[in-house]
Amino acid sequence: MSRVCELTGKRAMVGNNVSHAMNKTKRKFSVNLVKKRFYIAEEDRWVTLKISTAALKTINKNGIAAVLKKAKADGFVK
Predict the structure, then answer these.
(1) How far is CA 75 from CA 4, 9, 25, 33, in A?
(2) What's the rounded Cα separation, in Å, for the pair 11 and 40?
(3) How far apart are CA 3 and CA 32, in angstroms?
(4) Does this entry carry the keyword Heme (predicted)?
(5) Residue 22 has pLDDT above 90, yes or no
């Protein structure tokens, strides 16, 4: 399974390591993902999601129902 946030679609970015001598080599900036269980009261069930920590902060602020609704509108959740 790829390292992609299931709610926001965040994925790894590509950039350069730059040495003191300005030599550049490719590197990858990985996403900070966590596996988390959420209880959805409207559906009366638990859901396990692999989400970024930024999405977790958004869920804590807005609630899981609102974030899932927005993710469905954006096309990240079926």
Answers:
(1) 14, 9, 34, 19
(2) 25
(3) 9
(4) no
(5) yes
Nearest to 37 by CA among 48, 26, 22, 29: 48
**Rounded to whole angstroms, how far apart are CA atoms 33 and 53?**
6
| Spatial CB neighbours of 50, under 8 Å, sequence gap ≥ 6 | 1, 5, 6, 33, 34, 35, 36
The rounded distance, in Å, linking the Cα atoms of 37 and 49 is: 6
26-73 per-position pLDDT tens digit: 999 999 999 999 999 999 999 999 999 999 999 999 999 999 999 999
